[in-house]
Write a structure and sequence with these properties.
Helices cover about 40% and strands about 15% of the residues. The protein is of the alpha/beta class. The chain has one domain: Rossmann fold, CATH 3.40.50. Strands 2-1-3-4-5 form a five-stranded parallel β-sheet, sandwiched between helices. It holds the Pfam family Flavoprotein.
């Protein structure tokens, strides 16, 4: 039986510390998970990178390959970019692909790969005019962006607060980061594409 491949991309935001449990949850749902990180997220998770590679069975990527190097991951059946920060989301929407995960996510749009994004931003960033433009740009390109007030996804949190269960000593935790909902949406998109 061929497993469905999920490229899980993460930016440096507190929910990234939950990534091992998220990988296990995805694997229990039948996904073959490949983990890609922004350079800052890789730095945050540096002590865990070898263990995460063992968990996924694939190298953890946070930089582009050199030209001519063979592809080390199977092709994606779906992409989940979560958490995606203000910086990564805007770069993605604007096509600024200096980081590997943003470049791979941008390419996924062009390849028609089902793609889901779950921003993790504070309310000050969310009020910046570029943020809503970027969300709308990605949505118009076919990306399911789980974000907003109510049932659309996580709402922005106030500066100084930490969303979800991630680390953040001395900061108030607010809300729960919707990992399960994100995996459900990815699974539904892949299933719909196969029917």
């Amino acid at each position: 039986m061929t497993r469905t491949t999920l490229h899980l991309f993460c930016s440096a935001a507190p929910p990234v510390f939950d990534v091992a449990q998220v990988i296990e949850q995805a694997q229990a749902g039948g996904w073959d998970v490949c983990l890609g990180l922004t350079p800052d997220a890789a730095r945050w998770l540096e002590p865990s990178l070898d263990g995460l590679a063992v968990l996924t069975g694939h190298p953890v990527r946070f930089a582009y390959d050199r030209p001519g190097e063979p592809e080390i991951w199977p092709s994606a059946d779906a992409v989940l970019f979560a958490p995606v920060t203000f910086n990564s989301l805007n770069a993605w929407a604007l096509g600024l692909t200096s980081s590997f995960v943003v470049g791979a996510a941008a390419e996924a749009i062009g390849r028609g790969v089902p793609t889901v994004a779950v921003p993790c931003v504070n309310a000050a960033f969310a009020r910046h005019p570029q943020f809503e433009r970027s969300v709308e740009t990605l949505r118009s390109a076919g990306v399911s962006v789980l974000y907003g007030y109510g049932e659309d996804g996580p709402a922005p949190h106030e500066p100084g607060q930490v969303q979800g269960n991630g680390q953040g000593q001395g900061r108030e935790r607010v809300g729960v980061y919707p990992w399960g909902a994100a995996l459900d949406v990815v699974g539904a998109q892949v299933a719909a594409g196969r029917s």
